[in-house]
Amino acid sequence: MKSQLFYSAIYNRFKVQFLYGLKEVVLEPYFISLDKSGKKVIYGRTDSSNEIKRYEFGRIANIKILNKRRFSPIIPLAS
C-alpha cells in the first residue's frame, strides 16, 4: 500500500507528508529503491533543504499525498 501511494505521488509529482519516527516530513519523492541490506527506501528532497535524503519504508507512517502541491524535480548540473 505504501508503495502504491508513493508511486502515484512520484508519477504525478505531488508532494507527500508523513511521519518518520516522531518527526513530520514533507517530501518531494524522486524514486523508490532497495538499500544494501535489502530494505525498501524512498529518496526525495525535503522542503527545508536542497539535499536528497533517504527514508526507510519501515519507519514511515500516516502518509498523505498533498494533491495541491506539485513540484518540479531539481536536477543538479555537473560543471
Which SSEs are present, and which pair or pack?
Blueprint: H1 2-12, E1 14-20, E2 23-34, E3 40-46, E4 52-56, E5 60-70
Account of the 3D structure:
- The mean pLDDT is 87.
- A hairpin with a 5-residue loop joins strand 3 (40-46) and strand 4 (52-56).
- It contains one helix and five strands.
- With 79 residues, it is mainly beta.
- The chain has one helix at residues 2-12, and strands at 14-20, 23-34, 40-46, 52-56, 60-70.
- The chain has a five-stranded antiparallel sheet.
The stretches of 5 or more residues where confidence is low (pLDDT under 50) are: none
Mean pLDDT: 87
- Major β-sheet profile: 5 strands, antiparallel
Q: What's the alpha carbon Rg, rounded to whole Å? A: 12 Å
Strand content: over 45%
Assembly classification: single chain
Helicity range: 10-25%
- Kindly state the number of beta strands: 5
Helix-strand sequence: HEEEEE
- Largest sheet strand order: 4-3-2-1-5
Q: Class by helix and strand content?
A: mainly beta
Quick structural overview:
Helix content is 14%, strand content 53%.
Key descriptive features of the protein:
mainly beta; five-stranded antiparallel β-sheet; 79 residues; 53% strand; 1 helix
